[in-house]
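Why this split exists: single-chain examples teach little about how molecules sit against one another. For that reason, every record in the complexes split bundles all components of an assembly together and asks for one structure covering all of them. Below is a record exactly as it appears in the raw files.
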Amino acid sequence: MHYWIIQTLNSLALGGLLFLLAAGFSLIFGLMRIANLTHGSMYMLGAYVGVSVLKVVPNLWLAALIGGAVIAFFGGIVERLLLRPLSGNALGQVLVTLGISFIVADLCLMVWGGDPIPVPTPTSLQQPIRVGGVVFPTYRLVVLAIAIGTAIALYLLMERTRLGAMIRAGVDDMQMARAVGIPVSRLFTTVFCLGAALAAAGGIIGGPIMSAYPGLDADMLPLALIVVMLGGVGSLLGAFVGSFIIGAVYTFGTALLPDLAYVILFLPMIFVIAFRPRGLFGRASV
Amino acid sequence: MRRFGWIVFTAGLICLPAVAGEFYINLASQILVAAIFAASLNLLVGYGGLPSLGHAITAPVALLATTLIACAFGWISLRATGLGFLMITLALSQVLWGTAYRWVSVTDGDNGLRGLTRPAPFGIGLEGATSFYYFALAISIAAIGLMAMFVASPFGAALRGTRDQPRRMSALGHDVWFLRWITFVYAGFWGAVSGLLFVYYNKYIHPASFSITASAEGLLAVIAGGAGTLAGPVVGATIVMLLKNYVSAYVVRWNMLLGFVFVFIVIFMPEGVVPGLRRLAIKLRKALARSP
């Protein structure tokens, strides 16, 4: 019984991390029509930058903020200097992001070395919580809470603010949004930076669970891809639901059938794509 | 004129072992294998307008199995086109890579499968560098020739039609999805042929052959050479293999180099070497015709 509770909690924590990653990915894809293959790299870079920040400031949350800001800046540079000149050339943009992801992966290997770097859990959260004889690892609950908090914040941003309304307009009909005077170009940069920051913060916050290691980008990116395909492109709700489904499938798949975890992982995707190509909550037009 | 160029090129390749040492013959074999792979990927990217990042999944498995996998994966991936197609193929290839990596009882995981032997068709051993080179060359000629016929056929014309104007092709009564699916399977078949040659060459297979890097190298070969041209992938594969073999002798960071080459080519040479050279040749010819 205890085993199942822990696995459930693990799956929820992984789902939360996936949401931090996939929300930005989905928004970028929905708005800019860019399959941003650097997104996994942003996650890994965030984890590594966080590790370095932690050496100076031993506070995980501060590290997440600083890491997020640094990677947001990096994302902005990538978007402005490399993706912008290629606007309209979707294949070119994807190839450039792929190239950047190779460069970033190798750069991380060069700077931080090939050994996994563990990220310590904040001391205040190391004590597990006991409820009725069952022990819960506190940190995973906190990760889950952060993900839900982020989801609510993003929901409010998208539904209740002017910026969110403009983003939604851009996702729905880009040309019309431009025509009515929405600064779509600035919106692109904003969303790209936001997505990069979320992914990077996810990388550090996930650090105590997954640590920072080379190949983290290639591990996380396909999960984000599957989440977005499952949930539907450009949909926040889709990213949220998809993240927890994939988190659960991955965790329980690894626990029960470790050899075939990856095969099980793509079953929900096949199922959804076969019957509903646009994803669970995706719109038909995208 | 163009056919003449191909004949001269092929003749040059046939004569190569007479003048080159074993190292170069082996390098040439590797280039041939990469060229078949790039050419098959080019069917999807260049002629079908379907950029696939999962093509390396077709390479390392045996022929029949991969063709079947290509059937199934094609069926899944072709639910989407364009970017969706790219993402699904990427996810599928990652899933297969992960499976190969983790399913230790079948693939021996990170150790890879060793002790594989080369076949001996008609009792001719392929262990020597030269004999394997001719084996690879014969298959390459057959592969490129058959792919050229595929592209030149009415089917190929219809395929290019679906790339440029899928809706009109659909209105004209072509089954766009079916055309793409057949192409996916056909490209998967030749990708598998190249993968088999790859395994014969190395006598070893490792999950890394499934990785994004492998697919990306192929994609780079297609883009660098020029998508949608027959010679492009051959030229591109040559460039990538030479880069890999020569530059990586001096630069340890092959992945970073690959990344930079990617960014460079997409930004400065978006149409590839072959169309670029062709345009240059046309300009030159015009200039020559003008000057008496």
